[in-house]
DNA sequence: AGCTTAAGAATATGG
DNA sequence: TCCATATTCTTA
C-alpha cells in the first residue's frame, strides 16, 4: 500500500510519464506546467529514463504457437500504426510484449459490438465487448519530437468477441492473457476511461485477483470527479471539452475515418486529457487522494461486482405473496376508515380525504407541514404521525406505505435483479458529492435494516391472529460452508466530530464509555428509561436527533422529530449544544469555506460550495450546513475507503484467506468468509480497522471502535467476540 | 387516445 | 432552514 504522504519535500507518486506531450493546440503555458509536473516518477527518480526494474512475474511466453503469418498494417494520414494482434507472427508477438514492458504509457479502451467504445457516450448499457484497442506509447531516448513520436506509437487492435476469444482456442487465449498481464504489470502508466468496467470484464474472463492486485489504472473520470464532485456522470467528450478546451476529439471531417481510426485518435486525446487532469489534481492537492485511495479502490470494486450474493428465492416468493395479501387487507381497512373507495397510493386523493373531507388539519393543535413547492398540505410521514391520534386512517396509511415500500423495492424489486439465484450490485465510485460510494441494481445500501411486523388475519374459524415479522435482509444468504461477516465502525461521524472539535465532553464520551453504546445511553438519559430497556427504535431516534442538531436542524423540524413543541425542542437543542460545544469547530469550517470557496475532508477531499457567499440567506445557510456536513461525512467516507483498501490488501497478500468483500454499506463492510476462517479473519479485520486511527497521516484524537457480527443470513447476525 | 418523459413526493438507507 | 444516496410511484 502506498502511504498517504503529505511531506511536500518528498517526491509524490505521479503518473510516471516523461515529457512527451503533444498537446495539439494547447497553450504553451499549460504545456510548460505539465512538463514541470512530470519531472519525476513514483520513486522520485529523474525521468525520462527510469530503470526497468519490475517486469511481469510471469516469463514472456517464448513458445507462442504460430497463428497467421500475414501482417496487416493500416496507416492513417497521420502515420498511425494500427496492427491486429491476431495477424502477428511469433516474433512480432514477442516484440509486442517487449514494447509493452518498455512502454512509457499504455492507453486502452474496450470496443463494443455495436461499434462504440468506452469513449462514446453510453447508449446501450448491455452491449457486449467485442475487442480492445490499445495505444502503446514508447519511450524515446531523444528529446521528443512530435513527428517521431507519432510514428513510434503503435496501436494494437484485439478482436475478442465471445465466440472468437474468451472461449476459443487455447493459443489465442494464452496470447491475450499474456498481453493483458504484461499491460497490468507493466511499469508503464496505464490509462483507461471507466477502468472498473474494463477490469471487471477481463477479470471474469481470464484473470485472477492476484493478477491484478497491484495494478493501477488511471481513470480520468475519477480524476475529474475529485476536481469537482458535482460532475458525476460526464462523458469522455464532456471532460475533454471541460478540461482541455483546445483539444478536439478527432474526426475533423476531412477524411472519412473508420470507427477504429476515430477511436485511435480518441485514445491519443484521452492520454492528453489524463495528463491535464494529473496536473490539475497536483495543483489542487488532490493527487495523494487520487493515487492512494481512489485508484486502488477501482480494482476492489471490480472484484466486488464480479462476485455474487445468493438470494433465498423461495423465501422471497413467499413474502411477496404474504405482503400482497396484507396490502389488500390494509386497503380494505383504509377505505372503511375513509368511508369511501379511493386509491391508497394516490397522495392527492388521500389529501382531499384527510383535509377536505375530515378537516383533520383544523382538529390538530400542531401545524401540518406543507409540500416544498406545491403550497399544499403534506401527507408525508411526519404529518401523518401528528394526525394518527385523531383518526384511524393515517395510521393505516403509514403501515400500508411501509409494507408497500418493502414489497415493491426489496421483494419484488429484488427479483428483477436476481440472476441464477444471485444478485451483484453495481458500484458507483463517482456518484456522490460526499466521497461516499453508491450502489444500484439492487441498491444494497438501502435494504431495510429493521423488520416489519403485522398481524395476519386468520379467516378460518376463530379470531386468532398471527404476528408476522419480515426482515428484508434475511433474503441475502451466504453460500455453503461460508458465513457473512460484517464489520461496522461504531458512531464514526460522531467520533470524527469529537476529533475535529476537540471538545472535552465529546472526547470523554468515547474514552470513558467505551463499553456502552452512546446513542442508547443518550436515549436512556432523555427518556428516563433504563439502559437495558431502550428499544432499537428509541436508539434510532436518538441517533437522528443527535446528527440533526449537529448539522443545524431548525427548532420546528426538531419538534416534529421529538414530538414536542418548537419551544421545548429549542431548549433541548440549546442544552445539547452547551454540553457538547461544537460551534467553534462549525464556525471555523464555515469561515474557511467562506474565504476559500470550498471545504476539505480529513484526506483532502474537496467540495466547492459557491453559494457560501450568496446574499440569499437560504442558499447561504444551506451551503454552511453542507460545509459542516461534508467535513464530517466526507472524512468518514475517506476512512471507510481506506479500510476497504487495507483489508483487501491483507487478503490478497495472505496465502490462505479466501474471504471476499461483498458490499460496503458506508460504515459497514460485508464479507463472505469460509466458516473455518471466520475467527481468524475477524481478528485481522478488527485490528486493521481500529488501527486506522494511527494510519499514515491520520492521527485521530478518538479511538475507532469496530463491531463484528456474523451469520448465515444478512438478516440474522450475531455479535462476534474477538480479543 | 394512448404513449413516453421528467420532476416531485415519499420512504428506504447511511451518518 | 440537518446532509446525501436509490427506488418506486404519481402526476403533468
Briefly summarize what is shown:
The protein has 723 residues and is an alpha+beta fold. Helices cover 45% and strands 14% of the residues.
Q: Under CATH, the topology of the domain at 73-306 is which?
A: Nucleotidyltransferase, domain 5
Please report the first level of CATH classification, the CATH class of the domain at 73-306.
Answer: Alpha Beta
Known CATH architecture of the domain at 73-306:
2-Layer Sandwich
Estimate the global geometry from the Cα principal axes: globular
CATH superfamily descriptor of the domain at 73-306: Ribonuclease H-like superfamily/Ribonuclease H
Instruction: Tell me the distance between the termini.
Output: 26 Å
Mean pLDDT: 81
Give the proportion of residues in helices: 40-55%
Strand order of the largest sheet: 1-2-5-4-3-6-7
The main pleated sheet reads as: 7 strands, mixed
Oligomeric state of this protein = single chain
Structural class: alpha+beta
Strand tally: 21
Rg from C-alpha positions? 29 Å
The stretches of 5 or more residues where confidence is low (pLDDT under 50) are 1-12, 17-78, 142-149
Strand content: 5-15%
Q: What key phrases describe this protein's structure?
A:
seven-stranded mixed β-sheet; single chain; DNA-binding; disordered N terminus; alpha+beta; 723 residues; 24 helices; five-stranded antiparallel β-sheet; Nucleotidyltransferase, domain 5
Amino acid at each position: 500500500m502506498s502511504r498517504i504522504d503529505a511531506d511536500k519535500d518528498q517526491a509524490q507518486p505521479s503518473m510516471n510519464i516523461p515529457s512527451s506531450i503533444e498537446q495539439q493546440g494547447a497553450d504553451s503555458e499549460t504545456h510548460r506546467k505539465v512538463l514541470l509536473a512530470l519531472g519525476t516518477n513514483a520513486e522520485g527518480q529523474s525521468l525520462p529514463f527510469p530503470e526497468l526494474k519490475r517486469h511481469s512475474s510471469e516469463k514472456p511466453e517464448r513458445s507462442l504457437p504460430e497463428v497467421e503469418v500475414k501482417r496487416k498494417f493500416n496507416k492513417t494520414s497521420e502515420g498511425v500504426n494500427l496492427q491486429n494482434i491476431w495477424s502477428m507472427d511469433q516474433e512480432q508477438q514477442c516484440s509486442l510484449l517487449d514494447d509493452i514492458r518498455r512502454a512509457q504509457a499504455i492507453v486502452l479502451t474496450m470496443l463494443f459490438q455495436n461499434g462504440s467504445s468506452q469513449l462514446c457516450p453510453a447508449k446501450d448499457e448491455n452491449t457486449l465487448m467485442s475487442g480492445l484497442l490499445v495505444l502503446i506509447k514508447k519511450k524515446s531516448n531523444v528529446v521528443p519530437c512530435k513527428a517521431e513520436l507519432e510514428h513510434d506509437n503503435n496501436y494494437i487492435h484485439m478482436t475478442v468477441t465471445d465466440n472468437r476469444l474468451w472461449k476459443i482456442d487455447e493459443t489465442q487465449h494464452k496470447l491475450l492473457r499474456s498481453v493483458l498481464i504484461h499491460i497490468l504489470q507493466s511499469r508503464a502508466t496505464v490509462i483507461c476511461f471507466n477502468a472498473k468496467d474494463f477490469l471487471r470484464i477481463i477479470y471474469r474472463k481470464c484473470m485472477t485477483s492476484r493478477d491484478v492486485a497491484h495494478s493501477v489504472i488511471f481513470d480520468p473520470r475519477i480524476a475529474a470527479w475529485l476536481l469537482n464532485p458535482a460532475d458525476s456522470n460526464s462523458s469522455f467528450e464532456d471532460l475533454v471539452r471541460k478540461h482541455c478546451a483546445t483539444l478536439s476529439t478527432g474526426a475533423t471531417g476531412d477524411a472519412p475515418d473508420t470507427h477504429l481510426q476515430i477511436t485511435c485518435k480518441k485514445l491519443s486525446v484521452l492520454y492528453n486529457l489524463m495528463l491535464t487532469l494529473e496536473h490539475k489534481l497536483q495543483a489542487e492537492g488532490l493527487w495523494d487522494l487520487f493515487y492512494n485511495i481512489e485508484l486502488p479502490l477501482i480494482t476492489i470494486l471490480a472484484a466486488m461486482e464480479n462476485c455474487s450474493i445468493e438470494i433465498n428465492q423461495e423465501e422471497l416468493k413467499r413474502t411477496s405473496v404474504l405482503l400482497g395479501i396484507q396490502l389488500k387487507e390494509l386497503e380494505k381497512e383504509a377505505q372503511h376508515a375513509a368511508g369511501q373507495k379511493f386509491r391508497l397510493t394516490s397522495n392527492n386523493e388521500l389529501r382531499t380525504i384527510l383535509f377536505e373531507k375530515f378537516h383533520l388539519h383544523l382538529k390538530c393543535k400542531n401545524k401540518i407541514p406543507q409540500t416544498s413547492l406545491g403550497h399544499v398540505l403534506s401527507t408525508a410521514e411526519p404529518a401523518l404521525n401528528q394526525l394518527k391520534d385523531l383518526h384511524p386512517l393515517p395510521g393505516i396509511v403509514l403501515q400500508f406505505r411501509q409494507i408497500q415500500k418493502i414489497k415493491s423495492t426489496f421483494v419484488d424489486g429484488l427479483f428483477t435483479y436476481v440472476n441464477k439465484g444471485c444478485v451483484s450490485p453495481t458500484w458507483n465510485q463517482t456518484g456522490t458529492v460526499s466521497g461516499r460510494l453508491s450502489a444500484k441494481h439492487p441498491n444494497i445500501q438501502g435494504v431495510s435494516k429493521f423488520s416489519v411486523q403485522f398481524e395476519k388475519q386468520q379467516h378460518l374459524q376463530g379470531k386468532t391472529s398471527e404476528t408476522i415479522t419480515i426482515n428484508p435482509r434475511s433474503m441475502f444468504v451466504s453460500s455453503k460452508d461460508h458465513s457473512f461477516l460484517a464489520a461496522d465502525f461504531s458512531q464514526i461521524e460522531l467520533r470524527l466530530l469529537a476529533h475535529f472539535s476537540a471538545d472535552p465532553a465529546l472526547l470523554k464520551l468515547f474514552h470513558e464509555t467505551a463499553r456502552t453504546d452512546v446513542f442508547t445511553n443518550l436515549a436512556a438519559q432523555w427518556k428516563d428509561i433504563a439502559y437495558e430497556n431502550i428499544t432499537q427504535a428509541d436508539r434510532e431516534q436518538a441517533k437522528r436527533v443527535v446528527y440533526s442538531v449537529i448539522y443545524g436542524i431548525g427548532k420546528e423540524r426538531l419538534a416534529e422529530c421529538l414530538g414536542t413543541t418548537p419551544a421545548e425542542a429549542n431548549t433541548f437543542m440549546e442544552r445539547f449544544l452547551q454540553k457538547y460545544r461544537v460551534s467553534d469547530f462549525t464556525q471555523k469550517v464555515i469561515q474557511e469555506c467562506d474565504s476559500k470557496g470550498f471545504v476539505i475532508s480529513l484526506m483532502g477531499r474537496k467540495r466547492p460550495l459557491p453559494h457560501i457567499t450568496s446574499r440569499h440567506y437560504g442558499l447561504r445557510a444551506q451551503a454552511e450546513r453542507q460545509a459542516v456536513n461534508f467535513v464530517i461525512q466526507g472524512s468518514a467516507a475517506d476512512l471507510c475507503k481506506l479500510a476497504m483498501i487495507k483489508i483487501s490488501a491483507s487478503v490478497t497478500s495472505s496465502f490462505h484467506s479466501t474471504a471476499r468483500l461483498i458490499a460496503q454499506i458506508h460504515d459497514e463492510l460485508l464479507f463472505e468468509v469460509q466458516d473455518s476462517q471466520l475467527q481468524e479473519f475477524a481478528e485481522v479485520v478488527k485490528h486493521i480497522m481500529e488501527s486506522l486511527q494511527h494510519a499514515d497521516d491520520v492521527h485521530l484524537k478518538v479511538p475507532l471502535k469496530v463491531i463484528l457480527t456474523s451469520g448465515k443470513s444478512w438478516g440474522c447476525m450475531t455479535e462476534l467476540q474477538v480479543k
